[in-house]
Amino acid sequence: MSVMKVIEVMANSTESWEDATKKAVKHAGKSLKHIKSAYVQSQSVVVKDNEVSEFRVNVKITFEVK
Length: 66
What we know:
The protein has one helix and three strands. The protein is α+β, with helices and mostly antiparallel strands.
């Protein structure tokens, strides 16, 4: 039997939601081992001068506790 834990990470990118998600997982991976999945719970953008300037994601990351 495995023990899994879920944390919530918020990340942003000027490129895309996909890039923001990758940044969230990469940042979490600096302090966590055995990451198994990431679930994008929500997405949003920042708008400046009628243009999208930043993509934001709220990601739930699941990892195994050993």
